[in-house]
Predict the structure.
Amino acid sequence: MFTGDRSGDFLFAALWRTGFASQPASDAREDGLLLNGAWITAGVRCAPPANRPTPAERDSCLSWSVREMGLLSDVRVVVCLGAFAWDAALRLIAALAGPSRAARRPRPRFGHGAELEGEPYSLIGCYHPSQQNTFTGRLTEPMIDAVLERARSLAEQSR
């Protein structure tokens, strides 16, 4: 995910600067990039039309996310790249909690740097590293680095 596009260029450089990646770029699947203490996934598993996933696609992919997160037992923090990812993560947490636990109300709002501590893991919001956000300065290198460093700090505190 993100390999070979401008969003990935920005994201992988940040992951490298903050110690989560072995190199600052990923140009192809077998280029040697290794993630350390990080996993990249998506709330939607297919390439949606016009690169705009729908809520129906997000909901259809939820069972995949539940299974995937079940395999990743060491997850402590989820960094949500954009409001869509934040919403998908909230739905994932609710699905993992089961029907006996009600969803949080009011629904926690997405924002860059927003934090939601909880179980089974905490969430941190980060603007998506899209060209629209990085070229306009809405998301800068120091901003994404701060989110990733905060994620590391929260993960270390919860061990």
